[in-house]
Design brief:
Strand order of the largest sheet: 1-2-3-6-7
Order of helices and strands: HHEHEHEHHHEEEE
CATH class of the largest domain: Alpha Beta
CATH architecture of the largest domain: 3-Layer(aba) Sandwich
Strand content: 5-15%
Number of strands: 7
Oligomer: single chain
Length: 224
């Protein structure tokens, strides 16, 4: 629900006059064909897939089956496609999807982030995802704050966090003032990537957005 409401707000400000159709469904639903056919008849320019877990895959599979995707581009709201089970679950139906990630193997990291990436790959034989990098940085952030405060007293730790800057996995962390949800929050880089062939490795995908970080252009799917 939160994602839907925030998308409505952003859409209205970024695309005045544009139309946004939203559909909310029960998370236990197993057949989204009626909703997807409704969307297909609406003739959208893009399909935003806000499902989490199983619904994400249902939307992709059934959108393919009804002929909605890939003729209509799809943007998946998080990094599920970067996991090996994506291709195991979807096969060729997962091709041409675009998806949001907060980390990509071609990103430039801090020395701390690069050290973690190398150790993670040596241990698990795959690239880390954003969650692993973020959890690692949070633990080290607390260790840095303990050292800066020279105490484990909560008030001293808070003072140390507010007064200092710390090395994260891809940049500097500081607890700055901000409006609304950005109050003392760190916003990770939001990257849009795209699969352009079946079984494509995540390390091979191109960053198609934002322009300052892109490594390739978005590609339209060929007609089925």
């Amino acid at each position: 629900m939160g994602l839907v409401e925030e998308t409505k707000k952003a859409f209205a400000s970024l695309y005045p006059g544009g139309e946004l159709k939203t559909i909310i469904f029960d998370r236990q639903v197993v057949d989204l064909t009626p909703q997807l056919l409704e969307i297909k008849n609406w003739k959208p320019d893009i399909l935003l897939n806000g499902g989490i877990g199983t619904p994400t895959y249902l939307i992709i599979k059934q959108a393919y089956d009804v002929g909605l995707h890939p003729s209509v581009p799809m943007l998946i709201s998080y990094d599920a496609p970067s996991r090996p089970e994506y291709w195991k679950t979807l096969g060729e139906k997962g091709t041409w999807a675009s998806f949001i990630v907060y980390y990509h193997p071609t990103m430039r990291l801090t020395a701390r982030g690069e050290a973690f990436r190398k150790k993670y790959m040596a241990e698990f034989k795959e690239d880390p995802v954003y969650g692993a990098l973020n959890a690692y940085a949070q633990v080290l952030l607390l260790a840095d704050a303990l050292n800066a405060a020279k105490s484990d007293n909560s008030e001293q730790l808070v003072k140390a966090l507010l007064a200092n800057k710390f090395e994260g996995w891809n940049g500097t962390i500081s607890f700055t003032r901000g409006e609304g949800p950005y109050w003392q929050q760190w916003t990770p880089p939001m990257l849009v990537t795209q699969y352009t062939k079946p079984e494509m490795a995540f390390s091979e995908v191109k960053i198609v957005y934002p322009s300052e970080l892109k490594t390739g252009d978005w590609m339209a799917a060929p007609k089925r």
